[in-house]
Design brief:
The chain is built from 15 helices and nine strands. The N terminus is likely disordered. The protein has one domain: Glycosyltransferase, CATH 1.50.10.20. A three-stranded antiparallel sheet has the order 3-8-9. Strands 1-2 form a two-stranded antiparallel sheet.
Length: about 425
């Protein structure tokens, strides 16, 4: 059984040239310039979490100017990306600068979100939906590898277990839809009601946004888990009206891989079309629904690529490529990444948050291109970057539609504004 090398984890940030591919040897400072502009406009430097929009002066809480809890980890990823780019570019000063920033963002988020007590379902600063927790599992696992923070590894394993097995305090039955319990397989999206939740049933929603991130999270934890680790002999145990439950504090290396393979197999079949690479948004019982969305395409690509790197099974790579092809050839318009916002109500909060989709997609395209040598996609990304650079406003910010000029004074969410710096930090321009 192979262990995922450091390069695979780093590939979600700056590919390390596995599979025979390589990044260009020279870089411009525009990637850092664009990221710095993003931070100037959106980072609350008193709290080190990010603001919701350009209209917010501070990131106080969910109802007071803070960006969504599930999008904050994408911004932490960007800081780690910047650090890795500076390191690869031999710039020790910037490497130290962005390492410090990444650590401050991680620490700021932990402090803000109730010390990452994943059993606290407070709807303002706590945890009330499975995928919100799992996005942070991914970023904390990356921080453990990239920044060498063992506290982040412990938090990542803790959050993964909370999602999979449920919570003794909240009383939910966990995201895992155990087939042996006639729940049908895959991962449930939420528990309802938030207080005193009912047990999930087979027909409840199983969204792509929890299933494929669970695969990614399991694969990153598979890499972090030490060889020969034994199973947890003292898991948390509890009993409620739904039965008796057990939640280990960690899994063995082999178990993480088993979990990833199982959820991927279910999700690829039930939420995807492997011939076209299309990923639908959700499934309820036997019914598939929802439009294909760029972030689901991205996590599907990442899940398949990580499994390919760990197992060498070419089917995973072919699936990842199909997901990328669908993203570019079907979802994108006129050669530009889509922003799936509601154009009739573009400043609705749910609509604003969709602006983070390209940043998520970029993380996993970096793995596919730079770690797995799929250079055929680079030209498309470079076209988007060049357009975004030309369409920035006077603050250096480009809204989510990279091919459209961003006027000064327009309300912009941090979500859509992350698209350009996220792409550039992973695919830095080499134009002189």
């Amino acid at each position: 059984m192979k262990s995922i090398p450091l390069s695979i984890i780093a590939a979600s940030f700056i590919g390390m040239a596995a599979c025979g591919s390589s990044k260009p040897a020279t870089y411009e400072n525009k990637a850092f310039e664009t990221f710095d502009a993003f931070n100037t406009v959106f980072l609350d430097s008193a709290r080190y979490i990010y603001k919701n929009t350009t209209a917010d002066s501070a990131a106080v809480d969910r109802w007071g100017g803070a960006a969504a809890i599930w999008c904050q980890p994408m911004y932490a990823d960007m800081a780690m990306n910047a650090m890795l780019l500076a390191k690869e570019n031999g710039d020790k000063e910037k490497e130290a600068q962005y390492r410090d920033l990444a650590n401050k963002i991680l620490d700021g988020n932990v402090a803000h979100y109730l010390d990452f007590d994943f059993d606290n379902n407070d709807t303002n600063k706590g945890w009330f939906i499975y995928d919100d927790i799992q996005w942070w599992t991914i970023t904390m696992a990356r921080a453990a590898k990239i920044l060498g923070r063992d506290d982040c590894r412990k938090l990542a394993e803790k959050s993964f277990a909370r999602v999979w097995y449920g919570s003794p305090r909240v009383g939910d039955t966990g995201s895992y839809a155990d087939p042996s319990k006639d729940l049908g397989g895959g991962m449930f999206w939420q528990w309802q009601p938030l207080e005193n939740p009912k047990a999930n049933a087979e027909g409840d929603g199983k969204m792509s946004c929890i299933n494929f991130p669970t695969v990614v999270a399991a694969m990153l934890l598979y890499d972090l888990a030490p060889e020969g680790r034994e199973g947890d002999e003292d898991p948390e145990r509890w009993t409620n009206s739904y039965g008796s439950f057990s939640r280990p504090h960690f899994e063995t290396k082999e178990r993480y891989l088993e979990m990833a393979k199982e959820i991927y197999a279910w999700a690829a079949e039930k939420l995807g079309d492997m011939e076209t690479g299309m990923i639908v948004d959700n499934r309820h019982g036997d019914s598939r629904g929802g439009h294909p969305l760029l972030y689901n395409q991205g996590t599907f690509i990442g899940a398949a690529a990580l499994l390919y790197k760990a197992t060498g099974d070419p089917v995973y790579l072919e699936n990842a490529k199909a997901g990328a092809d669908y993203s570019i050839n079907v979802l994108s318009e006129n050669g530009y990444l889509p922003w799936a916002r509601n154009h009739k109500n573009p400043y609705d909060q749910g609509s604003l948050e969709q602006g983070v989709y390209p940043a998520i997609w970029a993380q996993y395209m970096d793995l596919l291109i730079n770690d797995c040598g799929q250079e055929q996609y680079r030209e498309f990304i470079e076209k988007n970057i060049k357009a975004g650079l030309q369409n920035r406003n006077s603050d250096g910010i480009c809204d989510g539609e990279l091919g459209v000029p961003t006027p000064d004074g327009q309300l912009i969410g941090s979500y859509a504004a992350s698209s350009l710096p996220a792409l550039m930090l992973l695919f830095p321009s080499t134009d002189k």
